[in-house]
Please model this.
Amino acid sequence: MYQNTPVSQQKGFTLIELLIVMIILGLLASLVGPRLFQHVGQSRQNTARAQIELLGTALDAYRLDVGRYPTTEQGLDALRRQPSGVDRWHGPYLPRDVPLDPWGNEYVYKSPGDHGPYDLFSLGADGRPGGEGEDADVRSWEN
Model:
C-alpha cells in the first residue's frame, strides 16, 4: 500500500527555502539581540542603585539607634546581627540577609568613608574598580 509518488508531487520545504529562513532569523537575532541585552545591563545598574539606597536607609536607622555607623570590620552584617560590644542595637535593620549585588558579588562597605560617613558601592559586572557601561561602579555617594 505504499505508493510511489514522483518527487515533484511530494509536499515539503526545499533545502534552499530552509536556508533562506535560517539566514533571515539569524539577521533578525543579530539586530534585536544587542538591544535587548543593553537593557538588561541598565536594569542591573538600576537594581544596584536601588539596593544601595535601601542599605543606606538601614545604615541610617542603625546610626540613629547606636549613635554611629557600623565599622568597616563589622560591615553590613551589623544590620542583621548585633555586633559584640554594641548595646543600643535594636535590629535587625533588614528583613533578610544583606543581598548580593545584581552580578552576584558582595557590596563593598567602608566606614568611615572617603566620601562621607560611609562608602557603599558595587564594583559592577567586572568586579573591578572603574569601568564603563555595565562594568561601571555603582556608588552611594553618586546616587
User: Anything to note?
Assistant: The helical segments are 15-66. The chain has a mean pLDDT of 86.
